[in-house]
Amino acid sequence: MEILVTGAAGFIGSHLAERLVARGDRVTGFDNFDSFYPRAVKERNLAGLRRNPVFRLVEGDLTDPHDIAAALDAAGRVDGVVHLAALAGVQPSIRSPQRYWAVNVIGTLHLLSACRERGIKRFVFGSSSSVYGKDSQVPFCEADPCSRPLSPYAATKRAGELLAFTEQHLYGSSVTCLRFFTVYGPRQRPDLAIHKFTRLIADNQPIQLFGDGNTSRDYTWIDDILDGVLAAIEQQARSSPAFRIYNLGGARPTSLKNLVDRIAKALGKPARICWQPEQPGDMPHTLADLELSQRDLGYAPKVSIEQGISRFVAWWRAEEGR
Length: 322
Fold this sequence. Notes:
alpha/beta; Rossmann fold; two-stranded parallel sheet; seven-stranded parallel β-sheet; 18% strand; 11 helices
């Protein structure tokens, strides 16, 4: 297939592009190299892909319809789009809600419109467990109304899902929204918890933990997430057009304190913790109900948090050495 992947230079996007070209697909990546973290990090993510003749990268911005058109022109015939480009993060979204809305909502609307105009009927949207809000109960189920998001980031991801539903309802495309639960692994953004904690503990620097350490997350290894994305792409290729939402998670909660203890143990160093008050906008707990994704996609996470932290620390050490 010929697939357009937005956010292809990022953590999940670069891994997905690699998996797609490895199985024989042609991939056009689209990314604007947002300055949230250094371009050099994203260029390293793309190093292997740039050497592959079935991968091409188009640099551009979701907020500019002309850039989106240029990416689709470069791709030629497009069988499907996997939309992963977004501004991510709860706390940054509280500081810059207008920018998050412009990129995550208006940008998604531009992309959906461009796909419709060109007759592209398959669209996979990378959503987030953050859409589960104030009234959501763990384990989170796709049938939850998700009507009370706790942050601008969560609201933009839910808005993207609603736009995608409207697109499918009006024009009969095949749309799948995948709610990712706290993805980690090689190339994880340097500002995210596991990457940041690993770096600070290794450098004997203090880490800030918010709350009492009992908040928990459903951490999910990158390869498990990719298995779910590929299964969704395959489902669209063989099934009638429909609107679908699936959770992709690890199905096992880990407390913040336990996470830090595991990282410290893997590094062989103690963690220096500075406790801080809880932050607004954060969910106290996340946990994915996987019944639907297991039934429809055959999704089954394979990597435990113990295995994942060990693998991540090994990758981080190799990366630091390099």
